[in-house]
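Researcher: Here's a chain I'd like modeled. Treat it as a single chain, no partners, no ligands.
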Amino acid sequence: MPFTEKNIEYEEIWDWSPGNSYAVGVYKSNEDDSLKSWGIGLYNDEKTDENTKKIYSRIFMEIEEIDS
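Model: Modeled as a single isolated chain. Structure tokens:
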């Protein structure tokens, strides 16, 4: 969870709970200005060079989908 504002308890203003995602993204929806999120986990929960590269590829794919 990106903490960008001091003195805000995010669990009180956004339905968020800790998870097992290796990478997460938060963005403002163009449709209704609400906050949306996505999370990506490691394949078999293994941190290898190959799995990390796949995570980066999936992150950019998520960004492309959101931007289109």
